[in-house]
UniProtKB/TrEMBL annotation:
InterPro entries in the record: Peptidase_M14
Organism listed in the record: Litoribaculum gwangyangense
Family to which the UniProt record says this protein belongs: Belongs to the peptidase M14 family.
Domain Peptidase M14: 18-270
Protein name: M14 family metallopeptidase
SMART domains, alphabetized: Zn_pept (SM00631)
Top-level taxonomic group: Bacteria
Keywords: Hydrolase, Metalloprotease, Protease, Zinc
Active site positions: E242
Cofactor names: Zn(2+)
Keyword Protease: yes
Length: 384
C-alpha cells in the first residue's frame, strides 16, 4: 500500500478515546461492544483477579493471523494501534480484500490485571512471557487454548520496549523493533523464520521512509519459555513487535502511528502474497538493538562522589509510575560517570558548574528529582 494512504487512514480512523500510556480493560470494553456489528466478540477467559479477557475475530479469509497485546500490562502502545486497525477494517471498504483473504483473531489485553495495575507481571507476579511451557497462569492457558483452536498461519506478538534502546550503535532510538524469534537453541534461520523475516522486511521498508535508521532488531537469544519462541518452534511464523521511543513522544502517540503502519503493511502483504520466505535477506541488515540511551544526560556536571569533587556525566532514566490513574514519569539518577559512549534523548551541558539536587544537596545514584539546580538555576527535568 502507498504510505500516504495508510497515514490518511490512521488520521481518519484513529481511536481518540485511547490516549497516553494507561490502557486497561475498562477503556476497551465500550470499544469492543461498539464494534459488535463488524466483529465476533467473546470472553475467552478470566484473569487471576477474575477480569474478562476478550477475544475479537474479524474477517472470513483462509489466512489466519493471531495477534495478542498487553501480555505485559504496562506495554499499551500496540493495544491503541489495534483499535485504530479495527476501526479501519470495520469502516473502510477499500480494505475489504484483507477481510476476504484473512481472518484475524485479536486479544487486545491478555493481562488485564497487569494492565489495571500498570505492571509487567500478572496478579500472581508472573511474567506471562516466561510461562509458555509450564502454563501455570490462567492468562497463559487462555492464549494457548486460542492458539490450539484457531490454528494460526501467522502470529503477531505485540509488546513495548523501554527508552534505553538504540537502533544499532548510533544516536537514533529504536522507535520500532522487530524479531523473527529463534526456534532452536542454535538460532538457525529455518524456513519458518524466513517467512517471518520476509514480512518484517516489508514493514521495515515502509518505516524507513518516515523514520530512517530508527528500526531495530530485538535480541534473538532462544528461550522456549517465551511465547514467541514456543510458537515459532511449533512451525507457525511468529513476529515480535516492539513499540519504542520517538523524540519527545513519551505518550507513545507517534509510535502508535508507526505500529499501525506496520500492521497494515503486513496485512496487505499477507493478503496479496504467497509468503515463501525467499525474500528474507534484507531482514538480516536491520541493526540489532543496543542499550545506548538515557532519557537525560547532564554533561560535565560538578558534583561530589564519596566527598570528592569530580566532573562527571549524570545519566537519568524516567521511572513510570501510576498515580491517580495516570502514568507519570519520575526522573531518577541511574549513573554518575563518563557517559561518552551513551546518548541522551535530552542533553544538558552543565559546563563544569556545580549540579545540586532539588533540595540543594549533592546528587546521589538512585535519587528521584523533579528538577536539578545548576549555577543557582532550577532546571525542570520533565514537563507534562
Amino acid at each position: 500500500m502507498q504510505l500516504e494512504v495508510i497515514q490518511s487512514l490512521f488520521s481518519k480512523h484513529k481511536e481518540t478515546s485511547l490516549y497516553h500510556r494507561y490502557i486497561a480493560t475498562k477503556h476497551i470494553e465500550p470499544l469492543v461492544n461498539n464494534l459488535k456489528d463488524f466483529i465476533e466478540l467473546k470472553i475467552i477467559g478470566k484473569s487471576v483477579l477474575n477480569e474478562s479477557i476478550y477475544g475479537v475475530k474479524i474477517g472470513k479469509g483462509h489466512k489466519r493471523i493471531l495477534m495478542w497485546s498487553q501480555m505485559h500490562g504496562n506495554e499499551s502502545t500496540t493495544t491503541k494501534a489495534v483499535f485504530d486497525l479495527l476501526n479501519v477494517l470495520s469502516r473502510d471498504s477499500s480494505l475489504k480484500y484483507v477481510l476476504d483473504r484473512c481472518t484475524l483473531f485479536i486479544i487486545p489485553i491478555l493481562n488485564p490485571d497487569g494492565a489495571k495495575a500498570y505492571t509487567r507481571i500478572n496478579a500472581n507476579e508472573v511474567d506471562l512471557n516466561r510461562d509458555a511451557q509450564n502454563l501455570t497462569q490462567p492468562e497463559s492457558k487462555v492464549l494457548r487454548q486460542v492458539f490450539n483452536d484457531f490454528m494460526p498461519h501467522f502470529c503477531f506478538n505485540l509488546h513495548g520496549q523501554r527508552t534505553i534502546f538504540s537502533a544499532g550503535n548510533i544516536d537514533k532510538p529504536a522507535t520500532i523493533s522487530f524479531l523473527a524469534p529463534a526456534q532452536d537453541k542454535y538460532c538457525n534461520i529455518t524456513p519458518n523464520r524466513k517467512i517471518a523475516m520476509e514480512i518484517i522486511s516489508v514493514m521495515n521498508n515502509a518505516l524507513q521512509q518516515i523514520i530512517p535508521g530508527q528500526v531495530g532488531k530485538y535480541d534473538d537469544a532462544f528461550n522456549l519459555n517465551c511465547v514467541g519462541d514456543t510458537f515459532q518452534s511449533e512451525n507457525v511464523p511468529t513476529i515480535l513487535f516492539e513499540a519504542g521511543h520517538y523524540s519527545n513522544d513519551y505518550e507513545r502517540e507517534k509510535t502508535r502511528e508507526f505500529i499501525f503502519i506496520s500492521y497494515l503493511e503486513s496485512l496487505n502483504y499477507i493478503s496479496n502474497t504467497d509468503v515463501t520466505g525467499e525474500d528474507y535477506q534484507s531482514y538480516l541488515k536491520i541493526p540489532e538493538n543496543e542499550k545506548l540511551f538515557y532519557d537525560i544526560i547532564i554533561r560535565n556536571a560538578k558534583t561530589k562522589i564519596n566527598t570528592e569533587e569530580v566532573i562527571v556525566d549524570v545519566g537519568i532514566l524516567f521511572q513510570e509510575k501510576l498515580i491517580d490513574k495516570k502514568v507519570e514519569f519520575i526522573p531518577k539518577i541511574d549513573k554518575m560517570e563518563d557517559l561518552d559512549s551513551f546518548y541522551g534523548h535530552k542533553e544538558i551541558n552543565a559546563n563544569r558548574n556545580l549540579v545540586l539536587n532539588e533540595n540543594g544537596g549533592d546528587l546521589s545514584i538512585g535519587s528521584e528529582n523533579v528538577f536539578v539546580i545548576i549555577n543557582n538555576e532550577k532546571i525542570l527535568l520533565f514537563s507534562k
